């Protein structure tokens, strides 16, 4: 008897629906445009510089790495452009060029290429780069310092920093409408809540991102923030403040549902998203960092192989060499 | 695999974005404005974000320059040392800022006076 495991595939016919990785990635770029354009309209040429340079650098690093490895150059699939765009959206408009060059290097080479390229990265590349940059260059990501020369006609202090250092009294000056409409200090492409929601809905409705992860992440943030707020309203901000400030919305729609670093089954997706949301608010409320997004999601990325073990039982039974 | 068209598009996009990025970085360098908008003071007790524009603008508190900046105002005699730098007349920046900021806030009954309402601890 031959007990070797055989490769088992479903039988024909197969059907290709015509969708390609590049179509998906360019759709993600289109979905991100409202938030990016708002950032550029607010901060002007420096914001455009950050976005354009980040996308270009990410693509160049991918070309260089694949030339070195003598592999086919995959930048035509748009994956590197998306990684660069998302990292640019997480940066302040004043980010120096060398931080962008280093950040895209971390995202593309360390975050993706050394694991084998697209589809093999265990961690979200832009978030890995953001986490390493935040830890290494705190000053660059202190939005109150970075944006101190800007006066855009609304409250220009960083909402999450006000909450962290001065408590809930200091955030009374932020109206929910302003936060949703992008009238808040922050990263280039992370402040325009409405634009991010519209982009996110587009991606979910077209099936490019999994709604299960995005919505469970938002639910995780909302419920955790609500519980903290109910326990001590004078100390902890309400759930809507956490939803519309910092990196919450860009993470929910563009970062957490990244294919390779998130689970594939229904229940694991819900757990993954909810725990990432919970971790975000935990770090914001009791941790040392102003925003917990990169660390909370990276932690869940690390736990992803465990989530993938929660899977439905196969129907039927195994027959040895039937 | 990606098609030749997609590959060419990606290379063109990368080239255009690189030019745009480099030109924007080169043409619009970060410069300090002539009159600061906000300042971040660093101190051992924690940094302080000071909204310079709100304090000086007519629509804000309308404070005159030489109410705070004496050394730059030639011929000004408004600083007698102790007024700004504390009772021991030791001209330290921290004492001057505390006397000026807190003094004015207490006098006008507006603005923060507690440590943790200015200093990021």
Question: What would your notes on this structure say?
Answer:
The complex is a heterodimer of chains A (322) and B (121). With 322 residues, chain A is mainly alpha-helical. Helix content of chain A is 57%, strand content 0%. Chain A has a single domain, classed as Orthogonal Bundle (Ammonium transporter fold). Chain B is mainly α. The termini of chain B are far apart. The chains are: A mainly alpha (322), B mainly alpha (121). The A-B interface holds A 21-22, 44-46, 48-57, 59-60, 63, 72-78, 81, 94, 97, 142, 144-145, 148-151, 156-157, 161, 165-166 and B 1-3, 6-7, 9-11, 13-15, 17-18, 20-22, 24-25, 27-28, 30, 32-33, 36-40, 49, 53, 116-117, 120-121.
Topology:
The complex is a heterodimer of chains A (322) and B (121).
Chain A: H1 21-43, H2 45-68, H3 79-89, H4 97-110, H5 125-136, H6 143-146, H7 159-166, H8 176-180, H9 193-205, H10 211-231, H11 239-243, H12 248-255, H13 266-286, H14 293-307
Helix pairs in contact in A: 1-2, 1-3, 1-9, 2-3, 2-4, 3-4, 3-5, 4-5, 5-14, 9-12, 10-12, 10-13, 13-14
Chain B: H1 4-27, E1 39-41, E2 48-50, H2 52-56, H3 82-85, H4 93-108
Antiparallel strand pairs in B: 1-2
